[in-house]
Amino acid sequence: MAVPLVDLGAQYVALKTEIEAVVSEVFETQGFVGGPFLEGFERAMGEYLNGVRCVGVASGTDALLLTLRAAGIGPGDEVITSPFTFFATAGAVANVGAIPVFVDIEPDTFNIDVVQIESKITERTKALMPVHIFGQCADMDPVLALAERHGLRVIEDCAQALGARYKGRLACTLGDAAGVSFYPSKNLGGAGDGGMVAARDEELAERVRLLRNHGQDSAYRHALVGTNSRLDALQAAVLSVKLKHLDTWNAQRRERAAYYGAQLADVPEMVAPIERAGNYHVYHQYVVRLPARDRAIESLRAKGIGCAVFYPVPLHRQECFAHLGYSENDYPVAIQASREVLALPIYPELTCEQQDEVVAALKEHVAALPRI
Ligand SMILES: *Cc1c(COP(=O)(O)O)cnc(C)c1O
């Protein structure tokens, strides 16, 4: 039996009737841009996130980019973030003309190592941008305390962590603002690209609302130079249907993570992901560390088991950031992670039998390792 890394079809089958109904409603109204579906979804997300202001945008990337712009961050400014994340995090910083300044990660959670942040703060630092990687919140209290002390913005990259909690507080409601992605494979995935800015800071939310629509404050009056980055009504309609299931899906991801954890507990060569005390991890990815990682990929794939490396090249080693002058040794924990990590299949519909297959394949890999 093949076990795909993700199986979006399984979710669609379960929601087909509801999704098709709402999609045809949008077609009946022909209101594809703006309108009640978008407004309804923004309101529902605001309620889900305990009253923060939500502005739908075209992608998670744009959510981060427009938040940075709305916060007035631009050329000459520095933004502190993690090198062990999807490119968009630092790409957004660079695209507003600012400089991404990296801080190494914790070896167990893969999140930014908050202890190392302060030494990177300079006169030019404007914001801290923690990424809640793989669905687990970064250690936010120290981040918020540093921001307070140094007068910095906190922008959460929540692309992988919608529904996650930190000491009981929801991701997206911890900093000044957060970027969410509705890329189809994210925990709340649309039928294409989509994203959202969730902002506790109302002024920031209002500026994002202007920026996503060419800075128009009334018809053909442009207060700011913005862009076209609106969330489609069709996406909003589909996402409204799915949002109602998000908490259940996240709980199902956690159950599957717990099952992997129990089954892999007797494999000391492998390091399973941990959930830091006080965190509610929503397992966007289930990422293990293991020896001979590349060989494991070959042997899993040969058995029809999907797996992937997030992330094979930390951002400080990307060609496009060569001019920033980082060297490999600058972020040793991120480098080591990039060599050892492997993401296993995890999604709400994943069955026990499928998980057993993944576990058996991993145990076979480990058993075949040369003994010293
Ligand atoms: C997916 C992702 C993004 C970007 O979201 P898109 O919707 O694909 O533009 C940003 N940051 C992280 C950590 C992500 O995983």
The proportion of residues forming helix, as a percent range, comes to 25-40%
Number of helices: 11
In this entry the ligands are: pyridoxal-5'-phosphate
The CATH class of the largest domain:
Alpha Beta
Gyration radius, in Å: 21 Å
Strand content: 5-15%
Please report the total strand number as a whole number.
Answer: 14
Mean pLDDT: 97
Task: Give the name of the CATH architecture of the largest domain.
Answer: 3-Layer(aba) Sandwich
The global form is: globular
User: Which H/E pattern describes the elements?
Assistant: HHEHEHEEHEEEEEHEEHHEEHHEH
CATH topology of the largest domain: Aspartate Aminotransferase, domain 2
Strand order, largest beta sheet: 1-9-8-5-4-2-3
How many discrete domains?
Answer: 2
Q: What's the CATH superfamily of the largest domain, by name?
A: Type I PLP-dependent aspartate aminotransferase-like (Major domain)
Describe this structure in words.
This protein is α/β, with parallel strands linked by helices and 372 residues long. The chain has 2 domains: 8-103 and 112-243, 3-Layer(aba) Sandwich (Aspartate Aminotransferase, domain 2); 246-367, Aspartate Aminotransferase, domain 1 (Alpha-Beta Complex), CATH 3.90.1150.10. Helices cover 37% and strands 14% of the residues. It contains 11 helices and 14 strands. The chain has helices at residues 8-29, 36-48, 60-70, 88-95, 140-150, 202-211, 233-243, 246-263, 293-302, 332-340, 352-367, and strands at 53-57, 78-81, 99-102, 125-129, 153-157, 165-166, 169-170, 177-181, 195-199, 216-218, 221-222, 279-280, 286-289, 341-344. Strands 1-9-8-5-4-2-3 form a 7-stranded mixed sheet, with helices on both faces. It has a 3-stranded antiparallel sheet with strand order 7-6-12, with no helix packed on it. Strands 10-11 form a two-stranded antiparallel sheet. β4, α5 (140-150) and β5 form a beta-alpha-beta unit. α8 (246-263) runs parallel beside α11. It is globular and about 70 Å long. The protein starts with 7 loop residues before the first helix and ends in a 5-residue tail after the last helix. The mean pLDDT is 97. The chain binds pyridoxal-5'-phosphate. Pyridoxal-5'-phosphate is lined by residues 59-61, 85-86, 88-89, 131, 157, 159-160, 181, 183, 193, 195. Pyridoxal-5'-phosphate binds next to α3 and α4.
